[in-house]
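Before a computer can learn anything about folding, someone has to put a protein's shape into writing. The three-dimensional part falls to structure tokens, numbers that each stand for a local backbone shape. The protein below has been through that process, and both of its lines are reproduced in full.
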Amino acid sequence: MKHRRSIASLALMAMLSACGTDSGSLGGAPQPTPTPTPTPTPTTTAGCSLRERQNWVAAQMKEWYLFYDTLPANLDPTPYSSVDTYLDALTATARAQNKDRYFTYLTSIKAEDAYYNSGSSAGFGIRLGLDSGSNRLFVIESFEGAPALNANIDRGAEIVAIGTTASNEQTVSTIIASQGSAGLTNALGPDTAGTTRVLKISDASGTRDVTLTKTDFALLPVSSRYGAKVIDDGGTKVGYVNLRTFINPADAPLRSAFDMFRQQGITKVIVDFRYNGGGLLSIAELMGDLMGANRSTGDVFDYVTFRPEKASNNSTRTFSPQSQSIAPMKVAFIGTRGTASASELVMAAAIPYLHANAGLIGTNTYGKPVGQIALDNTACDDRLRVIAFALQNANRQGAYYNGLAGTMEASCQANDDIGYQLGDPREASTKTALDYLAGRSCSAIPASSAALQSGQIAAVRFSQPVAREILTPDRPNTQQREVPGLF
């Protein structure tokens, strides 16, 4: 992944309303004191020339960037043809140091607000993975209420060919041979409603051509099919919850899931974050609270730390047990290289209290112990997501840039088996999670000493022995940043 995984600091979004962020309904994070005073933003369209937008970005970076010492002393924006390429140049040193792997980026205010508030997205409603060794493209998840699932395309289906019509379909292998994996993104078309493609699908029902049209749909953060359930493991009840993304609509289904666990007296839980790219800090904190019935209000969930001259914005979040909360004795977190940011924070926050009873199942995670604030140039619909703070758990652990495998006190290696639905006890990662919870033996995940350097999610291998890569555009939209592989 590349890029980005964003823990959006709601507190800072609210406090930076002078920048045009309308976040009054997004409360829930600790309020920094005193209120940060952002750099003034343009208020008319006269402030939207390329040079003015570049200058605005440079000013925000100079004021708020966590890795301020890596910024060029004076970088002339003239040679750069876009704000994005200029921002790439500003953050080049931090990226080379493995600190900011496309976590700082420019996006649309309207598009991001729509996503975080409702899960709004335009697409086929599938998450795609590419088996790089064989150049085969698979659906690794299919979302409810979207075109693909409505056409009976689900996890495990292979996309053999893509075309605008059945007569001009090109096979996936042909596209990759001529254009690389980026050619697949191009072949699938723009992320706008009304885009139509013909996909040749191969699954248990056979091979067929399916015509799909991208539409607007609301992505459910917790699947209505398999997102929350109770698994009977040899007479032991195990709670299973799969969170796809940390957005506001996750609040209610997460409370419902843990209340179900509470009512059934469940103390062993599988939390499936295998494709979760992150999202809102407030939802991460809620998840911690829902697994913190036995935590006191003085127990630390996380520390949020800004650069020295912004230290007045630092905060400490303590647990706040909810009426739906449980007190798990053991938690199995399913993770992959597609797991980042808010997902990693929830896992890291459990270590000081559960120690080896909080295990990482699957593969090493992405490694993003930092978060962004939102800085808005409303006249231009520009939102700069800038890395502005570091995250640490109660033990002050937070330098897991190479993933959590070296920080978690217990782990079990497992594959991502798309032959079974997520949460199926027969699926490899879920089965291994059950083994861990039951105390059965497993092989530990090796902590990688090599940092992930690529800026692309498409370069992230999240399972072995299958080298499957999450397919994502070079410059993903907000939804694709938080839901890697989404099309």
